[in-house]
Amino acid sequence: MNLRNMKQSETTEQIKLFKWAEINEQFVPELKLLHHVPNEGKRTNGTVLKAAGLKTGVPDIVLPVPRRGFHGLYIELKFGSGKVSKSQKEFMKLLAMQNYKTQVAYGAEEAREIIRWYLSKADNFNLINCEEAPKTFNHCEGFEEEWTPCKTCEFHNPQERSEKTCL
Questions:
Q1: Quick check: 29 and 149 in contact, CB under 8 A?
Q2: Which run of H or of E encompasses 4?
Q3: The VRR-NUC domain covers which part of the protein (predicted)?
Q4: What values do phi and psi take at 75, rounded to 5?
Q5: Interatomic CA distance for residues 71 and 88, integer angstroms
């Protein structure tokens, strides 16, 4: 899919976000769980979809990974002057009451930053470090920090490399 030929929109921003996740899921396995809830837009079969469980206000993006004291992450992605609807605010409030992290992101880059923050187990570590880590034959060379999400990182198994700790 060539994004250059598409008009920039919420959809193209979402495609950019999921391309980023796909590229990095080998090194950050939790990204394999990131998914979109196709809940927006007008449909001719809306009555059937609502009967089958379609709900108004459900955020666009879900990452069902417990982290930072939350059960999972929900992101409502907006683009340009897009506004959060009343039903979206209400649904996100209900999610927050169930201990889910909810956020609104204006564009793919802001959504990536939210996900990077959410998945980082240590406040002193930004996931962008894993994304930009040197890799040889799809094997992460790693960082000397307290924790890393990367399963292929040479620092991931502290028993094998006791002189270094994982991010």
A1: yes
A2: none
A3: 8-109
A4: -125, 130
A5: 19
CATH for 3-119, among 3.40.1350.10, 3.40.190.10, 3.40.50.300, 3.40.50.10420?
A: 3.40.1350.10
Token pair, residue 135, equals 């890799």
Task: Please give the span between the terminal C-alpha atoms of the chain, in angstroms, as a whole number.
Answer: 35
Segments making up each domain of the chain, as ranges: 3-119, 122-167
Which has the closest alpha carbon to 30: 134, 115, 144? 115
What are 8-60's pLDDT values in tens digits?
Answer: 788 899 999 999 999 888 778 889 999 999 876 666 677 888 888 888 899 99
**Token pair of 75, please?**
């992101």
